[in-house]
Design goal:
386 residues; alpha+beta; Leucine-rich Repeat Variant; four-stranded antiparallel beta sheet; two-stranded parallel ribbon; 17 helices; 10 strands
């Protein structure tokens, strides 16, 4: 099968998968550690990870006939936003993987083309299953075994030549392909930059992430209120977080992709926060059609924007926050109240007091009451320092 393996490598490269590796379909070697990670509560509210746990023990639970796992990685690194824009608190930061088209759609299409190629090339009846990151497979384990890279201290897969800006994917196949057995190259060594740079201390030790503290989890996977203690640490990150990758020395070697699917869409590169806060459902759906950002839904995305506005602390945001305080979604109203409390001032206080007289949702009422306490404390601090 050596010739077929080589052809698969070549075809995958042409389809945009920069890194390709093949391993035998086998039982997971890290399932016990993964199970313990879930039992420790580090998955947070991602209950689907526990439901999928039995399937992750062996890829052959996904495809009984599987004999090989083709692991693939596609580069999504494009550019670095101007530092002045990225650090502007009036603008929101979106994780670079979400600047362009939804990678799930892009990668599934490319995997489908790869499978079609193998069907035409292989001299046997083919059975396959394609996996992007939503499939129940511990993909970084198989990618590391295939020599694509090593799992870094920030839990991302890192390649010695080009870093970690990669989407991972797999094809399970019922053909016994030649495996890639080259030894891994590179390591994190003594470097701990990712651990030190994380604003919420989510990397609690090397290779161990507590999702409940991770900004990507808080702004994407978490569907409810963001814990108050963590909101100030999120800064202006409104969808995901790239900090642990941005500080990684290995990513200094990253080469931008020319794939048009991952180039930044208009408005996705450090958008102005006040341009986002008033989006209707129709506007949200139109703006983020075919984008990973739609995963948060409007309510989750505006929640994130409101946290960023609160951290910005600019009084000129108050009129927009007043409108957000009347939104149909309680989640939006509650975070608008928090942002008003962070900004403070007489106008914000009056808006909060007025809303408190008509609000019916207890979660929002509590947020308003806390925000009013915040404005009172800010006023006292101001008077004491005057």
């Amino acid at each position: 099968m050596l010739a077929l393996t080589q052809q698969i490598h070549a075809r995958a490269n042409k389809l945009g998968f920069e890194l390709v590796g093949i391993t035998p379909a086998a039982q997971s070697e890290t399932i016990a550690r993964y199970r313990q990670w879930i039992e420790n509560g580090y998955a947070g509210k991602m209950d689907y990870l526990e439901r999928h746990l039995p399937l992750k023990a062996d890829v052959r639970y996904l495809l009984t006939e599987a004999k090989s796992v083709i692991s693939l990685a596609m580069n999504y690194y494009t550019l670095d936003p101007p530092k002045a824009l990225a650090e502007d608190p009036a603008r929101g930061q979106i994780s670079r993987y979400a600047w362009g088209d939804d990678y799930h759609d892009v990668i599934r299409q490319r995997l489908s083309e790869l499978v079609d190629f193998i069907k035409k090339t292989a001299e046997t009846e083919l059975k396959t299953r394609v996996c992007v990151d939503t499939a129940p497979i511990i993909e970084r384990e198989y990618a590391q075994k295939a020599g694509i890279g090593w799992i870094g201290k920030n839990t991302n897969l890192i390649h010695w030549r080009s870093g970690s800006w990669y989407f991972l994917a797999e094809v399970l196949i019922n053909i016994d392909l030649e495996s890639d057995t080259a030894p891994l190259r590179g390591s994190c060594g003594t470097c701990t930059r990712c651990i030190e740079a994380c604003p919420t201390d989510a990397i609690i030790e090397p290779n161990l992430l507590d999702s409940r503290l991770c900004i990507s989890y808080l702004t994407i996977e978490l569907k409810e209120s963001i814990p108050k203690a963590l909101r100030p640490k999120i800064g202006n990150l409104i969808f995901g977080c790239d900090i642990c990758q941005e500080v990684c020395p290995w990513n200094s070697k990253a080469v931008p992709t020319d794939d048009p699917a991952f180039q930044p869409r208009d408005g996705n590169l450090t958008p102005k926060l006040l341009s986002l806060i008033g989006m209707t459902q129709q506007e949200f759906s139109r703006r983020f059609k075919g984008s990973p950002i739609k995963r948060t839904k409007r309510r989750g995305f505006l929640r994130n924007v409101l946290v960023a506005i609160g951290n910005w602390g600019e009084p000129r945001a108050v009129p927009a926050l007043k409108d957000a305080l009347t939104d149909d979604e309680p989640l939006v109203r509650s975070h608008a109240a928090w942002a008003l409390g962070k900004i403070g001032g007489d106008t914000a206080k009056q808006i909060l007091q007025t809303r408190l007289t008509i609000e019916i949702e207890q979660e929002v009422i509590t947020e308003i009451q806390n925000a009013l306490l915040e404005t009172d404390q800010s006023s006292r601090r101001y008077k004491n320092n005057a």
